[in-house]
Amino acid sequence: MDNMQILEEKPSDQPSNASPGPGRGWNDPPLLPPANGMSPSTGAIKKSGRTLNKRVAFPLSGSANQSPNKAPLNLAAPSLMPPTVALPPKAIDAEGASAENSEQDESLDLSATLSNFEQVLESTSKFGGKATVHAELESIKSMWEKEQLNDDVCLAIQRLSKALLVKDTKSAQDSLSTISKSLVARHDTVEWSSALRSLVNHFALASVYGEPTDN
Questions:
Q1: Which of 96, 145, 171, 179 is most buried (CB neighbours < 10 A)?
Q2: Which of 96, 162, 134, 133 minimizes the C-alpha distance to 154?
Q3: How far is CA 22 from the centre of its chain?
Q4: Residue 76 included in any domain
Q5: Residues 122-134: pLDDT tens digits?
């Protein structure tokens, strides 16, 4: 055996078929690797391509998107004041403004007022109180010239004469009402104010029923 080389027998990596065990079925669970991760045939440590259940450190809530050197922005608090609502412009009463302007522009004229009353008396032949009104017009003239009547009363008398001249009995009655309210406590104006009232009532009735006849 000098020329013969002794070959060492190596253990075979293939499993022995001397004592075959029962075969694996289709529903048997897969074989698990050794706990130490070493291959049963070579003893080498196998590195798994994917590690499960690996712990990864996550940043705390709210600090992931913040830079350590950048201070957080201070958001302005919402305003609690209600929004400003623009109010529509106040409507101007054109009629009231016109009346006020006419009062300021209208000057008192005693002569024109007396002339208006004379024309009114001449326009009617059926008014039985002409003489009385003529007499009371002298009283009005005297008190007007002596400034015993305020401007409101004088203006109302003047407007009453204009209203009767154009047969506007509604405006004449309004002016007469202003005179009565202004002189309610004055007894020295009762006679001529009553004469003016009778004149206004005559034309008010004439505007409805016409001038009375002699029949």
A1: 179
A2: 162
A3: 93
A4: no
A5: 998 889 999 999 9
Contact 195, 133 (CB under 8 A): yes
Residue 7 pLDDT? 46
Question: Residue 175: helix, strand or coil by DSSP?
Answer: helix
Instruction: HSE, CB side, 13 Å, CA atoms: give it for residue 36.
Output: 6
Coil, helix or strand at residue 38: strand
Instruction: Determine, yes or no, domain membership for 6.
Output: no
- Note the pTM of the prediction, 2 decimals: 0.52
Q: Which two tokens stand for residue 187?
A: 């007894």
Parent domain of 164: 108-209
Encode burial over 152-175: b for 16+ CB neighbours within 10 A, e otherwise: ebbbbbbbbbbbbeeebbeebbeb
